Recover the amino acids of this structure.
């Protein structure tokens, strides 16, 4: 991969925007890049990210930690997330209903995504809100 590309730069910008103590999934990042089926490419891109990109804040679609996380694997990602007060379960997963984050609508609008991607973003956000609502009832 080249040292810089529009995709890589967008992945890094999105991951840098994730607040401390919150997470996004690889699929969310891919969707916000305008490539909803590029979750694996997001993972590879983060594998070579510079140190100022908080890669620990990206998990799989089930909230699972990354098996190939830098040199320390899931235990390092766990430690970095716990340092941000994110609770990691014994099975190396995060409660997405509690910790998953989406950018504000104006940030999403500024990404200038195609309409079909914006529809998918809205669907994902609605689904995430419903999951939070259901988890609070339980």
């Amino acid at each position: 991969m080249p040292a810089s590309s529009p995709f890589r730069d967008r992945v890094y910008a999105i991951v840098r925007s994730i607040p401390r103590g919150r997470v996004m999934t690889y699929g969310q990042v891919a969707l916000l890049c305008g490539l909803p089926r590029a979750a694996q490419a997001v993972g590879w891109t983060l594998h070579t990210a510079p140190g100022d990109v908080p890669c620990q804040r990206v998990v799989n679609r089930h909230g699972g930690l990354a098996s190939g996380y830098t040199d320390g694997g899931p235990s390092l990602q766990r430690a970095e997330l716990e340092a941000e007060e994110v609770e990691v379960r014994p099975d190396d997963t995060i409660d997405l209903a509690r910790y998953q984050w989406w950018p504000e609508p104006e940030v999403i609008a500024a990404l200038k995504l195609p309409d079909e991607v914006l529809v998918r973003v809205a669907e994902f956000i609605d689904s995430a809100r419903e999951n939070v609502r259901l988890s609070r009832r339980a």
The chain has one domain: 6-137. Residues 6-137 form a domain with the Arc Repressor Mutant, subunit A fold (CATH 1.10.10.10). The first strand starts at residue 24 and ends at 25. The beta strands are 24-25, 58-59.
